[in-house]
From TrEMBL, chains A, B:
Protein name per its UniProtKB record: Ribonuclease J
Residues noted as binding substrate in the record, renumbered to the chain: A233, S234, N235, H365, T366, S367, G368, H369
Compartments where located: Cytoplasm
Source organism of the structure: Litchfieldia salsa
Binding site for Ca(2+): G50, D52, D446
Function, as annotated: An RNase that has 5'-3' exonuclease and possibly endonuclease activity. Involved in maturation of rRNA and in some organisms also mRNA maturation and/or decay.
């Protein structure tokens, strides 16, 4: 029995960004068309040995390539645009983004030599992009980067609203969040709201960027030496505020770090940063100007080992060395997992003689993500029928759901879903439901390899990392050892300080290889005996590799 | 010209605990005698692959063993007593400690089968231990463990005071800090003060333990389900407060985690924990009692993967599984570096259905270390001539020095020194000075190995962790390859998904081994060519091992 009278249905499928912070990617789909929102990367934690980035699994998109109308970008942060080069290597998709995000995307695609084939469209809050069954429009929000948008996907069943990352900054540096437009969207009816959960556990309301600007001016005014100011390059408003404070106090600005140079150049080109050429100085002027006339604006506020600030702290920077009187300002708070790196850099800077001002000591940073009252404001403006907390770990999703319920969304209309879940909204049904699962496992990128590393390789790396390895290589002829077994270790012990142990291992293996066993049987026997012996001796479990070659 | 009229001199030598948090160990020395204060361990950060603990280098003590009179323990935390078994394996030293610390030390020595040979003395604040040239006495402080002492070493040149870890808790759970005795010590004159810098960057004054007790009662009263309370086992006062809150609300207490069981047993034996037997329940009662009558007290508040709480969160605990209505309380704040692990456990607990209350949300934890006003109070009581900030990273030492200067210690009398520095105070000299350096490198412990791992082994582990390894074995006869080269990789790529790459590597090596070079020359050539090729192909740098065997 075939149901020919098919009901209308739309699907919302997160491919990344749920149960985690990073690699955001959301699919909105109806019978005919697919719209994608964001294409981010995520940075690995310390247990993902050697992994450079993580991206979502794109296979659902590849399979449904014919339905895809476009990729829509909420804003220009890496966890929203960083995956684009990897996606474009698999699929040709037109990309729609605001001016600044588009600037970052262009420079990224250029680096990957993908710019020429890419189809890029600049969008503003005035635009509506119309496809055959869907329509996409935008509303202006505030976040820690200019040109941040929420996205409205108008489907045959109603509006699906994706907030992007947002806060409500009523005294922003750039344009204010467009509350009136948001109210209109709410009045017209929101079928489903997908909203940023990052700071759902933070009570109250976030500090305004302008408040930080005042702190920056206070700090800069007080210093008689150089100011070394570290922050995120993409936070163009913050850069503008540092430049303003410098101009106000007759300081010139030296830019350190490639991504900082790129952001300043792009920000000035596109009109987001307003500063005369004479504000910026070269390394020659840096050397000749008196300290109280110098601001250094640099990357590395998260303690990244190759960023400008780490190199300055450890004396490895070509142009900048700490001198007495330098004050280093961390205008950021450490992302969980970066605490130790930041700490190391702060100690190095202090040892080198700098004063260090960081987040704990001053109102020198504010989050780009709204706290609880801001999240409630968004829910109250949008009055959604269904609510899906996105952008966040489970605990944040859960708290965000609680906020939604407090704002009047019925509990059964809130959905904490996972990457890969297919949330279906079907005509005539009062509730949405998870009706399927698409592949959404993390895909690891190491160097130029995409997806050639998974759990088993990572498990080997973990053992190698913690215990090192020993390899045993043996020649035999007619099952009789030919020469002595070759034993090589790496990452295991100081061989010189452990001569006895290495001798014992050699003796053990030499005795084992007397047994006239088959090749694989003997290899297994050596691995087991060696593993037991080493654990008994020094309580370690190195990776053991054996290879026997039977000469003919 | 020999100076026979030798001036008096004392030396203060930190062997661990400066420029870091952990492995505290301080030497106070005069011509005749040495007194040691504390013998701690430190836990490794994620870059010390496979290392279990770090201890100080004991070689200075071994060389000067004849002068050592005793090891004096300020309190029973691992970073003050954890190194004792390793120290006693090298040296026979009598140990003096307060009752609770001694309890922890005994159980530690028993585990290492060292208890029988050890000489242990229990001390109180009434005692003075007299040697021929030095005298050691104690003053009571407050900290996050009972029986915490400051130590006064009376030398021929004056008193050297070591604060241990301390805060000033005026409403403590146990006895109050002995301010009157501290004032007396100050009045009698302090030559040099060594003081705890851990929280020197924190303004104000720390919360009292009693305040936390009130929060605990509030939290426990509100819950209708089970309470799962995670904290440090050694914080016996906190345990008492949880027990009190449970008794008050008619809950019974189940203890989870071996170190928690040990702490409760020891605490009750020694009279630090006051609770009738009927307070504690077995796993059978745990199953039968209604949820609102159950408190579970467990280890794992730092997200330690093998502690009770992690096992509960991931469903691996034998007796405890999360059920709806459970509330998990983290009564701790994450030590830097543990943030990600704690986060992971919180998300698992939330997914399993528990409500989670943690440090960010409530006054559910307080530090055991004094904040700025408390540090200033100590300096003001002691009025030291010389000041050495101890227990802390450089940034904390630096800030503590600033506080001392604010309290009237002349800047030139403050010394930020490093592990291994010999700070000499000489008769007739107005200032102290660093006059030498003794070995104070970190000693790594991995499994049963002490000191058999150093930089080079760790560097190999780092490469193995991030890129994996490839080994090439080859047989030759008369410089002609005999069979094909054997290539084995681990932690490198999914071999099945990278057949082309592995084939190319095989082809490359096979062509290289045609060259009739000497064994070592060819090994080097293979390593270089392979490393270049792999980097060019996939931008990775695996560890490459080559071994050529020339058959005779």
């Amino acid at each position: 029995m075939v149901n020919t009278d098919k009901k209308q249905e739309i699907k919302i499928i997160p491919l990344g960004g749920l149960g985690e912070i990073g690699k955001n990617m959301y699919v909105i789909e109806d019978d005919k068309e697919i719209v994608i929102i964001d294409s981010g990367i995520k940075f690995p934690d310390s247990e993902l040995f050697g992994i450079d980035y993580i991206i979502p699994n794109y296979s659902y998109l590849v399979e449904n390539a014919h339905k895809i109308k476009g990729l829509f970008i909420t804003h220009g942060h890496e966890d929203h645009i960083g995956g684009i080069p990897f996606l474009l290597k698999e699929l040709q998709i037109p990309i729609y983004a605001g001016k600044l995000a588009l600037g970052f995307i262009r420079s990224k695609l250029e680096e990957h030599r993908l710019l020429r084939e890419a189809t890029l469209y600049e969008i503003t809050e005035e635009d509506t992009i119309t496809f055959s069954s869907m329509e996409v429009s935008f509303f202006r929000t505030t976040h820690s980067i200019p040109d941040s948008f929420g996205i409205v996907v108008n489907t045959s069943m109603g509006n699906v609203v994706h907030t992007g990352d947002f806060k409500f900054d009523f005294t922003p540096i750039g344009p204010a969040p467009d509350l009136i437009r948001m109210g209109e969207i709410g009045r017209n009816g929101v079928l489903c709201l997908l909203s940023d959960s990052t700071n759902s556990e933070v009570p109250g309301i976030s500090l305004s960027e302008k408040h930080i600007g005042n702190t920056i001016i206070d700090v800069v005014k007080k210093q008689e030496g150089r100011i070394i100011f570290a922050t995120f390059a993409s936070n163009v408003y913050r850069l503008q505020q540092v430049i303003n404070a410098s101009v106000l106090t007759n300081r010139k600005v030296f830019i350190a770090g490639r991504s900082m140079e790129r952001a300043i150049t792009l920000g000035r080109e596109l009109g987001y940063i307003d500063a005369p050429d004479s504000t910026f100085i070269s390394e020659f002027e840096l050397r000749s100007l008196p300290s109280h006339e110098v601001t250094i604006l640099c990357t590395g506020s998260q303690g990244e080992p190759f960023a400008a600030l780490s190199r300055i702290a450890s004396g490895r920077h070509r142009h900048i060395h700490i001198i007495p009187g330098d004050t280093v300002v961390f205008s950021s708070s450490p992302i969980p997992g970066n605490g130790l790196s930041v700490n190391r850099v702060i100690n190095l800077l202090a040892r080198a003689g700098a004063d260090v001002i960081h987040h704990k000591l001053n109102d020198i940073h504010t989050s780009g993500h709204g706290a609880q009252e801001e999240l409630k404001l968004m829910i109250t403006l949008m009055k959604p029928k269904f609510f899906v907390p996105i952008h966040g770990e489970f605990r944040m999703q859960k708290m965000h759901r609680t906020l939604a319920i407090q704002c009047g969304v019925p509990e059964q209309n809130t959905y904490i879903i996972d990457n890969g879940d297919v949330l279906s909204i079907t005509e005539g049904n009062d509730v949405a439901a998870v009706t399927g699962k698409v592949p959404a496992n993390p895909v690891y990128i190491d160097g130029h390899g995409v997806g050639d590393i998974g759990r088993s390789v990572l498990n080997e790396r973990k053992i190698l990392a913690e215990h090192g390895m020993i390899s045993v290589f043996l020649l035999r002829k007619d099952k009789v050892a030919f020469g002595k077994p070759q034993i090589i270790s790496r990452g295991f012990v100081y061989v010189r300080q452990s001569e006895q142990l290495m001798d014992d291992i050699q003796t053990l293996v030499t005795s084992l290889v007397q047994a006239p066993l088959g090749k694989f049987e003997l290899e297994k026997k050596i691995r087991e005996a060696l593993s037991g012996f080493i654990y008994e001796q020094i309580k370690r479990n190195p990776l053991i590799i054996t290879r026997i070659i039977d000469l003919k």
